Amino acid sequence: MAETNRPVTNHTGATNDQPEFSSETITISVDENTPIMTAFGDPVAAADGDTGDTLTYSLPDNVLLLFSVGTNTGQFSTFAPLDFESTSSYVVPLYVRDNKGPAGGADSIFDDSIKVTINVNDVNEEPAIAGDTAPDVDENTTVVGTYTVSDPDPADTHTWSIDSATTDENQDGSLFQIGSTTGVLSFTNAPDYEMPGSLADTPANTYQVTIKVTDDGSPPMDETFDVIVNVVNVNEAPDITSTGSSHTSISKPEGTGPSDPLATYAADDPEDDTLTWSLGGHDAADFTITSAGVLRLQALTDYEDPRDQGTDNVYNVTVQVRDSKINAAGSTNGNADTDPDDSINVVVTITNIDETGTVTLPGTITAGTPVTATLTDHDGATSSESWQWSRSDTAGGTFTPISGATSNSYTPVAADVGKYLKATASYTDPHGSGKSATSAASSQVAVGNRHPSFPSTETGMRSFDENSGMGLYIGDPVAATDDDGDSLEYTLSGADASSFNILGGSGQIFLKSGVTYNYESKSSYTVIVSVSDEKDDAGGPDDVIDDTITVTINLINVDEPGTVTISGMEVGGETLSASVTDIDGTVSNLTWQWALAASASGPFAPISGATNNTYTIVAVDVNRYLRATASYTDPQGSGKSASAVTGQIAASNNEPTFGVDGVLTREVAENSGANVDIGAAVAASDDDTGDTLYYWLTGSDASSFTIDSGTGQIKTKDGITYNFEVREFYDVSVNVRDNKDAAGNSNALRDDTVSVIVNVADVNETPVIGTPQTAISVAENQTSVLTYMATDPDNSNNEANDATNTLTWSVETADDGGFFEIGSSSGVLTFKNAPNFEDRQDAGGDGVYNVTVTVTDNGIDGARGASNHLSISKSLAVTVTDVNEA
Hints:
By secondary structure, the chain is mainly β. It has 8 domains: 25-121, Cadherins (Immunoglobulin-like); 128-232, Immunoglobulin-like, CATH 2.60.40.60; 239-351, Immunoglobulin-like (Sandwich); 358-438, Immunoglobulin-like (Sandwich); 461-542, Immunoglobulin-like (Sandwich), CATH 2.60.40.60; 563-645, Immunoglobulin-like, CATH 2.60.40.2700; 663-761, Immunoglobulin-like, CATH 2.60.40.60; 768-881, Cadherins (Immunoglobulin-like), CATH 2.60.40. It contains 1 helix and 60 strands. A hairpin with a 4-residue loop joins strand 21 and strand 22 (294-297). The longest helix has 4 residues, at 245-248. The two termini are 92 Å apart.
């Protein structure tokens, strides 16, 4: 509540004494966590000089949330929980009144106040434990869980222990331990679900323990926490029991295979689960294992062809077993899984044995063709080989050695045809010498050579277009077949054999050099093609022809194009004549068309009206190409055409030319007058003697000049001002004609043109004084006279000075010039000394001073080359006037 406090003052003659506290402040204390409405400290009382007054004590509204005070006693009490760790001290005002005014009348104004400091005393408080009250723990493990402590006193440290009290909740306390500083609760020995050790009168695998935490406060405080631990059954993995050397290091000879057990494996499972065997390791793919644990190889082993990863006949395989259950919390049967539970590494070594070699022969044996016997021995490389071939009339008969046939290769001779062969090898292998192997009987030895022949599908007909050239292949080769695949040799004979050639190795007939094949002269030829394999029946060499075939070669009549011939001089103004011939015969329905193009390859544009076999060359044809095209009918039919193109048409008249690819330049000095020659004439040349040339100007600046039409001399023009500072160059084109076209006929067309840049040469020009005064009056006793202004036409901005041209002012000494001075760059004219009207110094003695002012540029001529300074002067009469002086 808000209070009004009246100062305590005892007024003389007052009927009431006001109460007052003995001091301005007081301190009291209270323990934290003191129950609400508990009085603490002594009453904070005020004194009142009036016997019998009732005093009233009160606190502000915001303080009443934490504390209360006895209305008539000043006794403080708690009104809310106090926490030292949150707030350790409070300062509150306490008010008192006697409910009377100074005159003794009733009022509600408080008479005095005191600042009360309330200190909260720190008291040690109990810690609190947090954690799982009923955790599940897998059998065969010890850790139960970690428990945590919270304490209102943050500075306290804590110690964990198993409660020593024997209670129903702590019957199994002796079976546990807890980290004194970590709060980690664990079994002293891992529990076994199948052999429970609980002492509690509860289910066999439920354990009861009480844990305790103690702080180091004063006095020490502790807290207990009851925990019920449930031990959970866990599936236990099987264990392989067959681990002796007979199961881990196995040796077998090569040839051991799937039908040969290598070892049988056994395992123990605490739950008697059904076990599954499997394999792992680098060489697992080379083995199998049965559900009964019997290990076998997948395939027959070969010492010389090892399949193990190291290719050293040492196979590494891991035998694995599982009960197909997860080894974790769950029922006795566990949850399904496929991970192995136990394994054992097994090394299987394959040993080498002495194996018999093998001799093999090709499936088909032909007389005259070499036969090679091949010896193979699984035991490795052979050496010291010797051979013997033998023959027999039957595959199962007695074989007789063949004299001289003592190599692994043998070529059957005629005596072997229809008989059978064997090859025997004597040799040494990695197991030692004295080894021998004989092949099985060969197939019956076949005849050595079969002759070629032309197949029935060969028609013996060929054809080609007339007029074909040398080397053309005529149809497909006239080829024979040979069952032996021999190289064949072909030749030509017959009445027309001299008109053709044939490729000896393929039977391909082709055209011969020097022979003309013209349908109109001869339309068909006949030749004989012969073939030989150049062997006899036994495969021996001979040159007898084995087969022949007659071949008819027909020419195909071809529609042959006509030929156009153009005659006459290919020069402007001349007449050309065209004619057409056709090898197929006489032409009819003949029409003509002449055409024109810029190049010999076209495109050609028809010339209007030029439809005769003759044509007169005109000017437009010069330097171009003409084509004459004939359209006609020949013995092959209608719609035929033929063309010829001329060379480049020459001119009968040569046009004048400037002979310049780029731009010409000329120069004129600025301010030049009219009709001044500008540089050399811009003249063209003409190869035709006697031609008169005519020149004229065009272009954007042509109106600024004139040109001599007979010489090409460019000149300045009347009325044109050539000012470098305004314009530095002009662009014109000079044109020329000889008044003839290319054919020599009269015309007025331009023959050539050239661009000319006329540059304006800079010339220094006299500056101009812009100050108009020629007379002026100035008062005596001052120096200022006049500021002059000047401009220079040579400056781009037409001002007195720029970066190139500057103007300099000076005073002439004649007349009264000696009395003046002028700023050389500013143009400010002043008396050197202020004039005195009463003491006239001018030459005339009349007070009028005559002075001449000159301005000079620093100009140069010819693109700012040679120095040529120019100046201008102006006179001024300065009258000095009288001034009233004190």
